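Weekly structure sync, notes
Attendees: PL (lead), two postdocs, one rotation student
Agenda item 3: pending single-chain targets
PL asked that the sequence for the first pending target be pasted directly into the notes so everyone works from the same version. It is reproduced below exactly as submitted, 370 residues in total.
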Amino acid sequence: MNSNIYQWLEKKANLYEFDEVSITDTNLSDDTQNHLLNFLEFGYHGEMKWLEESVEKRLSPKKMWQNAESAIIFAKNYGPEHNPIGDISKIKSGNISVYARSKDYHSVMKGRLKQIASQFVSKFQGSVKVFVDTAPLMEKPLAVKSGIGWQGKHTNLVSKKFGSWLFLGVILTDAILPINGVSEDFCGTCRKCLDICPTNAFPSPYKLDARRCISYLTIEFDGIIETEYRKQIGNRIFGCDDCLAICPWNKFAQKASDTRMQLGQKPGLLPLSKLLALSDSEFRILFSGTPVRRAGYKKFIRNCLIAAGNSYDVTLIPLIIGYLDDETLFVQALAIWALRQLCEEDEFQRLKNDRNHSHKELVKEWNANK
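Predicted structure, written out during the meeting:
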């Protein structure tokens, strides 16, 4: 098996449109484990309680499956057509992170990996388990151990071949396979990814405070986004690509070519006037099959209201007013904030006087400064 396993895997990776494949063992270093424990100890995970609940399993693949001996790492390039940094300036449109502009990679990749895993068992025997970012498995450290890339100062994987644009999937097996060496860190003295972050989410290199991260705030966080982050969010309504897009290694990145991942209508940059007019059912239809549905309709509208407040587009005011009476508190709160940014003072005061809000959070929004 040792002599032909890589040849076989590379053939399968190519057949199923993966761009890299490599193998490592399932032992994570003390540094990797301590990094996770420190992340949780400082509370950097915010409301992502599942990280706390599954921490023991995350510390080692063997704690999740005791028979796991080898990890086969598959990487898939999702490089965009153009650098998405420029999309930040299109303030009348809602800006969706590059990874969410195509079909949900979880389902697409997992289906392909299951087929490869089944064929692996038929050819080489043993048992396997397949993972694509849906289980307490630390894929990025495993990818580093396998040599596919290194974790940059933004904590994401970076590859010499594909820059920062890689999805990861893992097949764990009880077979002992030949492994590759660990990837070297090529970040050097560069800190562009740290400096570009709009919300200063990096306390130091290689450390992320998710509570300040726009991706966390627009996808994971379920509540009223703090005032200090709203202007910095700009037109980002689902995720943020800044720290990925600025990476100098992206000069080697390649445009993704997997046609089966693409959508007929690309929802990456749509007018806020259209997005704010969506009903719940229309939202689910428009973003069917994409990761955007993960946020849910209400959080998505909340994010769009923040983008509207940053748009300078007064034509959105009638649409925003419609959310003042929404049953969800964080939607009401951000509608008030958006109107504060767009309305003339007399119009804003009229809207305020027309409503008798008693909830302290809404009173706070009505009385806040612009």
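Discussion points:
- The CA atoms of residues 161 and 348 lie 52 Å apart.
- The first helix runs from residue 5 to 15.
Action: rotation student to compare against the earlier draft before next sync.
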